[in-house]
Amino acid sequence: MESNAEPEILRTNLSSFILMLKALGIHNVLSFDLLNVPPIPSLSQGLETLYALGAIDQATNLTKLGLKMSEFPTEPRLSRILLESFTSRCSEEILNIVSALQVRSLFHQPRTPKQQIDYDAAMDEIMDSTSDHVTYLKLMQMHEKTPLNEHDCKERFVNRMALKRACEVKHQLRRFLRRYGQIEGLENGQSEEEVSSICKRVITSGLFPNTAKLGNDGRYYSLRGGNMISISTSSVLHKHGMSSEYIMFSETYDGSRGGIEVRHVTFLEAKWLREIAPHYFK
């Protein structure tokens, strides 16, 4: 192993870093005096992501939307989702989802066959078989309606400390979001399917760069780059979800089974990509 770890700026997504510099008035990112200069491809990818999200224009100048996004203590994709929630009047639901994504994991994974049976039974009450994100929403809403105590969390395999932290994060994000509009929730008369569809479409506005299509071999391949990916075993879609032609995801990592695995996965409709980001997939 190397004596010193590689600097983080050389191995992470730079979109948040670039957006911060732009908000500080530094137009030419390459001219900024860094101790370790990131690779040009990484900077280009960060700029491309920000342009796709509408945070910068073709001249790489910060847009009004980009300035708003820079105010949030989240990565640009999630900031974009939060702001997009105003258009569908589902800010309350999206706050729950984004807050859940800020913690490590809301669920403990079963370790024995008996635990797996209990886990599957508990997830039937919470799970949305088409979306990890909507599953997080349902758990957060359940907790808001009737707070889960330690025994309840244990029975449902819920990480109590992570759930508590997600609620704290939601309170903090609400303060940022209310600067730009009225925070509303979807009407109670809407069905679970309608709520799920509305939320998933809003999530697509930020996660469209992280999308994959089902190949003829039954595996998923990213739309940009054509990399083969696998759904994490921690995802409800891994065991309980049906196959979908398109998926989007929040995170990638080197999987224990080899190759690229993805967390926080949701099915999406191809028409959402054409409506939200036609420029990105040309």
Walkthrough of the structure:
- It is a single chain.
- This protein has 3 domains: 8-70, Arc Repressor Mutant, subunit A; 82-194, no CATH class; 207-276, no CATH class.
- It is 45% helix and 10% strand.
- The chain contains 12 helices and 5 strands.
- The chain has helices at 15-23, 40-53, 64-70, 76-84, 91-100, 113-126, 132-145, 150-155, 160-177, 192-207, 236-239, 270-276; strands at 211-214, 220-222, 228-231, 246-254, 260-267.
- The protein is globular and about 55 Å long.
- The mean pLDDT is 90.
Supply the key terms:
282 residues; alpha+beta; five-stranded mixed β-barrel; 45% helix; 10% strand
Helix- and strand-based class? Answer: alpha+beta
Helix count from the secondary structure assignment: 12
What gyration radius follows from the Cα positions, in whole Å?
Answer: 19 Å
Number of separate domains? 3
Shape: globular
Q: Strand percentage, roughly?
A: 5-15%
The total strand number stands at 5
Low-confidence residue ranges: none
* Quaternary structure annotation: single chain
Strand order of the largest sheet: 1-2-3-5-4
Q: On the 0-100 scale, what is the average pLDDT?
A: 90
Order of helices and strands: HHHHHHHHHHEEEHEEH
Largest sheet: 5 strands, mixed, barrel
User: How many angstroms separate the termini?
Assistant: 42 Å
The percent range for helix content is 40-55%
